[in-house]
Amino acid sequence: MLKAVVGTTAALNYFNSLKVRASLVIIFNMDKHNYTDEKKFIAALLANNESAFCYLVESMYNQLVTVARAIAGPSIADEIVQESWISVLKALPKFEGRSTLKTWITQIVANEAKKRLRKESRQVSLDSLSADNDHFLDRFDANGHWARPPASWDLSTPEDILDEKLLKLCIDKTVKILPEKQKAVFSLRYLDDYSLEEICNILEVSHSNIRVLLHRARLVLYQTIEHFQETGEC
Amino acid sequence: MLSCKDYVNETSKILDNEKLPVLKKLNILVHQMICHHCRKYLNQMKTTVEVANKLNHKTVSEKTKEVAVKNLKAYSDKQ
C-alpha cells in the first residue's frame, strides 16, 4: 500500500513538473511566433505587434542587406535596410497581394537602394560583368577538352558534405566572400528561392547576366567543395 | 560536336531549367554518353546545387534586431 502511495505521489510530482516545464516553454517561446500565414502576419504588423516586428527582421534582414549591398555597395547597405523598415510599414496598408509579401518587401528595399545610389551619384554597376572567377577555364586545353578533369568525391551526397564541419565552414566563407553581384544572385536563388525572372526584376539585371553571375557563383562553390575533397582544406 | 568546355557552359542552362532546342539537347546527351569526365562533372555540380539549396542565412545579430524593432515601434507609436 505504501509503495502504491509513494508511486502515485512520485507520478503526480513528475506530472506536475511536466506541467510547470510546459508552462515555462510556452512563456519563453511567446516571442518565437512563426508567422507562416501571410494575412495574419500583415495584420500583426499593422497592429504594431512587437513579435511580428522581430519575426520580420529575423526572417528578412540578411536577404535584404544582400540585395542592398549588390545595388548600392556594402558601406551603406545596412543603413538602407534599417531605413526601409519604416517605408515597408508605411506602404503596408496598400499591399495588394499581387506578389508575396517577401517579394514586395525586397522590391521596396531594392528601390530604396537604387534611389540612394542615384542620390549619392555612386557608380556601382550591377550589369557589368568583370572577368572574375574565370580560373575554371584553365581546366580546359586549347581544344576544349579537360586538361584537369574532375576527380572522384569521397563525400558524394549533400548531407555528407554539410555534415563535414570544416567543409561547411569553408562553404559559408566562400559564399560570404563572393563578389557582391554574384552573392546577391546566388543568395536570392538558393537561400531565398526566387526564380531567375524575379531576380531580374529585383536587381534590374538582364536574364543573360543573371545566368552568368549564377553560373560563376556555382563554379566557385563547386571548386571549394572539390578542393576540400582533394586536400582536406579550404 | 560539343567540346567539354562547351558542355560545362551548356549544362549551366540545364541547371537553371532553361528550355533548350532539341538539337542542342541531343548534342549535350551524346557528349554526356561518351565523356565520363563530363558525366562526373554534371553529377558533382548537381550535388553542389543541392548543397546550395540547403544553406541558410546566418542569424541576425541581437543589436541589428534591436535597432530595427526600435525604429518600427517608434514609427508605429506616432501613428
Secondary structure: helix percent of chain B: over 70%
The low-pLDDT segments of chain B are: none
Strand content of chain B: under 5%
Count of helix runs of chain B: 4
- Per the principal axes of the C-alpha atoms, what is the gross shape of chain A? elongated
Number of beta-strand segments of chain B: 0
Unreliable stretches covering 5 or more consecutive residues of chain A:
19-31
| Number of helices in the DSSP assignment of chain A | 10
Give a quick account of the main beta sheet of chain B: strands, pairing sense, barrel closure. Answer: none
Return the structural class of chain B. Answer: mainly alpha
Q: Output mean pLDDT of chain A.
A: 84
Largest sheet of chain A: none
Rg of chain A, Å, rounded: 25 Å
Structural shape of chain B = elongated
Tell me the series of helices and strands of chain B, N- to C-terminal: HHHH
Characterization of this structure:
The complex is a heterodimer of chains A (234) and B (79). Chain A is 68% helix and 0% strand. Chain A has helices spanning 2-28, 38-46, 50-72, 74-91, 101-119, 158-163, 165-176, 180-191, 196-203, 207-231. Chain A has ten helices and no strands. Chain B is built from four helices and no strands. Chain B has helices at 4-15, 22-34, 36-53, 62-78. Chain B is elongated and about 65 Å long. The chains are: A mainly alpha (234), B mainly alpha (79). At the A-B interface, helix 3, helix 4, helix 6, helix 7 and helix 8 of A face helix 1, helix 3 and helix 4 of B.
